[in-house]
Design brief:
The protein is α+β, with helices and mostly antiparallel strands. The chain is built from 14 helices and 9 strands. The strands form 3 sheets. Strands 1, 5, 6, 7 and 8 form a 5-stranded mixed beta sheet that branches. Strands 2-9 form a two-stranded antiparallel ribbon. β7 and β8 form a beta hairpin.
């Protein structure tokens, strides 16, 4: 059985109609691939369309303020993708004279572009036979060939990349790469795939051995770290509040949030008041404190789970040390989805 030809034929009949499949413009393909990292198509599609509408080419994206790019990205999470996207656009414009990289090796020089994204762009846009390997590809190959090597081990990553490269259609690498990814997403799904309708069952080792659900094998990740976030939502009589820009290389870099008190356990109103006695923004000042959410809001990230409380501090005026933000302008700031959901729920 020629898996390559079967997958390309299947793709020609069953592929979903998506806007980035109507073009080989590398800017469009790059944008779609970055957005769809860690994001399902149904969630990512409106963002892709919004970015293409606002930034129709790499020059317009490069010239945009980072805060504007982050605001448009708001809700997608993994904000480093947006920052890398913006930085790479500037690199293409300033260092490459607006000429998009056209080989696998040169695409890897773009910030935020790794093996998978470089392979996808190189094959789809420039017909370079560079095999993609993503979660869908791992699943199809591990099941079809009956491979139980963990896909997130160094051995597994090298093995599956070599296997994918070995079977790629060198004359039509773009369609083949899209075919195997689409096949994994639509047909060879993670849970309960319909093997009765699969064109590969005749030679599928996992189907023959009745262990489809056991493949691919993945080493279990470490348990996410638990953190407790206490956001201080100042509201002054003049309808202003306080927002702080996050610094450093941690989560939500360059996004805005309410002043944060981080703790190793859930804090009560009494313990918050004790902390606020010496807190820079409330020391020697009067305020009325109320808790917005009695139950902590659990916000799950890949490596940590955040347990958030929002404490409302009504004050006559804000401390002189801060720059007041008019509540009427609060939606102009790029914030993490956790903060955005609170802003919407509180309705100021």
């Amino acid at each position: 059985m020629n898996i390559t030809k079967i997958l390309i034929n299947w793709y020609s009949i069953n592929k979903r109609v998506l806007p980035w499949r109507k073009t080989k413009n590398p800017y469009h393909i790059w944008l779609s691939e970055i957005i769809l990292q860690q994001t399902q198509i149904k969630q990512g599609l409106p963002y892709y369309e919004a970015f293409i509408s606002k930034y129709p080419n790499v020059l317009s994206l490069a010239n945009a303020p980072e805060s504007e790019v982050l605001k448009l990205w708001q809700g997608l999470g993994y904000y480093s993708r947006a920052r890398n996207l913006h930085a790479s656009a500037k690199y293409i414009v300033n260092d490459l004279n607006q000429e998009f990289p056209d080989t696998y090796k040169t695409l890897l020089k773009l910030k935020g572009v790794g093996d998978y994204t470089a392979s996808a762009i190189a094959s789809i846009c420039f017909n370079e036979p560079a095999a993609v390997v993503d979660g869908n590809v791992y699943r199809v190959l591990s099941r079809f060939y009956g491979i139980d090597t963990p896909i997130n081990s160094s051995k597994g990553i090298k093995f599956f990349k070599a296997l994918a490269q070995d079977i790629i259609d060198e004359n039509n690498p773009g369609d083949y790469n899209q075919a195997i990814m689409e096949f994994g997403a639509v047909q060879c799904k993670p849970a309960n795939p319909d093997c009765n309708l699969c064109p590969l069952t005749q030679d599928c080792v996992a189907y023959r051995n009745n262990n489809v659900q056991e493949l691919p094998v993945k080493i279990k990740a470490k348990k996410p770290q638990k953190k407790f976030f206490n956001f201080l939502v100042f509201i002054s009589d003049s309808e202003t509040t306080v927002l702080e820009k996050r610094k450093g290389k941690g989560i939500w870099e360059n996004l805005y949030q309410f002043p944060l008190l981080e703790s190793d356990k859930s804090l009560t109103e009494k313990s918050i008041k004790e902390i606020l006695k010496d807190y820079k923004l409330t020391k020697n000042s009067s305020y009325k404190l109320t808790l917005f959410n009695q139950d902590e809001i659990i916000h799950k990230l890949s490596h940590q789970h955040l347990y958030a409380k929002f404490w409302i501090l009504n004050v006559s005026e804000l401390p002189q040390a801060v720059t007041p933000v008019p509540i009427s302008k609060i939606n102009d700031y790029a914030v993490p989805v956790l903060i955005g959901n609170f802003i919407e729920a509180f309705n100021f």
